[in-house]
Amino acid sequence: MIRDGKLQGWLSLPVDTLPVWATLNGVSFDGVSIGPLPGKEDRGSTVIARRHLKGGHEPPLVTIPRDLILSLERIHQHAKSDSDFRAVLDGLDEFGRTARGAILSFLLMQSFTACPSVVNKKGVSGPFTEYIKYLPMEMLPTFWSPAECDLLTGTTLAPALSAKLKSLNREFEQLRVATANIPWCAEQWWDEVDGILEFDDWLQVDAFYRSRALEYPGVGDCMVPCIDMANHSSGTGTAAIYEVDNQGNAVLLLRDGKNIEQNGEITITYGDGKGACEMLFSYGFIEDEMESARELFLDLSIPEDDPLRRAKSAVAKCAPGFKIVDAEDGVIFEGAYIWIICVNEEDGLSFQIQQTVDGAQELIATWQDEPVHGFEGFRSMLEQDPLWDVYHLRAVSILQERVASQLQDLYGSDDRVDATQHGDGTGIRERAWHLAKRLRVLESELLEKAYSYYEDQVSRQDRPISDDLHIDMDGFRQDSRSTIHVCSTC
């Protein structure tokens, strides 16, 4: 299944042979099958109704034996009978004890075991050795070319994608270092001439996991064959739910009141609240019905001239930024980091060195002599202060400035993206261009809504809006080089 690296040379299995694999491994289907939708073969495989299905009256549509649920527990069980894989997992230490580390390593090992060009086979074959051959190549942004990634300039996906690729490189290097002393790994994976593993191989197993992992009750993050073929639809479009039955098997159940005609699609939800950025990042698409970016995350940094900058950075354990969430009555912002930025020593924030019970020293923060733990609950402390309105206004001004900066980046690259040639022979695929363009539109609309909402909040607090703070959106789009100044010392 890993075809971009050296683990290639074999074709994926046609999905119409999947029933044979399912029968051999105890998977049962009732009224459904897996394959392309009639007339929509270009959308890939999905779960299809083979008869009229009536919600509330159907047995499980798909039942997957518990031994096929690819969870952290299942992988550790497999490692007990696969000494080659156990050596890899043990070498990864803490990373190998996480669901992500264990599952990615397992998928990589199964791909290696299945590859016909490997002469000296290692690892124990199992159901997943064949199942990974049914998994399609995912068009996640981690596989986009540099020119395609450049289309994301100004979106929140651009920094997220850059950080993800760096993280994947670190993981791949960790795998190399952890297994370099295992003789067969050194020879077959890492040899400079004959070594078979490449970074693209790690990208592919990451894509398998990120786009197909489900969170099962009582199991945690895992992959479930066949059920992971179901496509996504949110809200009322979601046709089925996935659960674990009383025997620990994974089951796909039609929702009560949901009727599906013969040859109709059985969809699940990958998460109704997920924003456009996360959908594109993790699954490689944006819903056609999505009318809003829903949410986006903007990073924040503590100003260089803040005298408590180093202490704040050392103590803060929260994400350095804030999330904007689209809401019917405005825009909600979430994130503790903003409150660290908008108060200082003269307000009552201080830091001191404290000795722990084991004799070590640690830096702790206090707010008006009360200890602050992690800053996650810091807002509630500020809300009790008589100057809360001042702190809140500072936060809103900082948020508005950050939103304006993001809009400037988006607008500043719009003309270039619009003029970019795409399609056959250009090096930029049509699908990548259209996805990037759609993300840009959705995020700019939410950012504009957020900016206007913050402006209204400032106005309601009887604070005149300075000429520097106000932005005429139409003019701003035309002159993306405008310099925007926002007062942050309210």
Architecture overview:
- With 490 residues, this protein is an alpha+beta fold.
- The protein has 2 domains: 15-266, Alpha-Beta Complex (set domain protein methyltransferase, domain 1); 291-490, set domain protein methyltransferase, domain 2, CATH 3.90.1420.
- The chain is 39% helix and 16% strand.
- It is built from 16 helices and 17 strands.
- It has helices spanning 18-24, 72-81, 83-91, 99-114, 127-131, 146-149, 157-179, 183-188, 199-212, 276-283, 309-315, 337-341, 378-383, 388-419, 430-460, 473-478, and strands at 28-29, 32-37, 40-49, 53-54, 62-64, 214-216, 220-222, 240-244, 250-254, 259-260, 265-266, 295-299, 321-327, 330-334, 349-355, 361-367, 370-372.
- The strands form 6 sheets. It has a 4-stranded antiparallel sheet with strand order 1-5-9-8, with no helix packed on it. It has a 3-stranded antiparallel sheet with strand order 2-3-11, with no helix packed on it. It has a 3-stranded antiparallel sheet with strand order 12-13-14.
- A hairpin with a 2-residue loop joins strand 16 (361-367) and strand 17.
- Helix 2 crosses helix 3.
- Mean pLDDT is 89; it is low at 463-471 and 480-490.
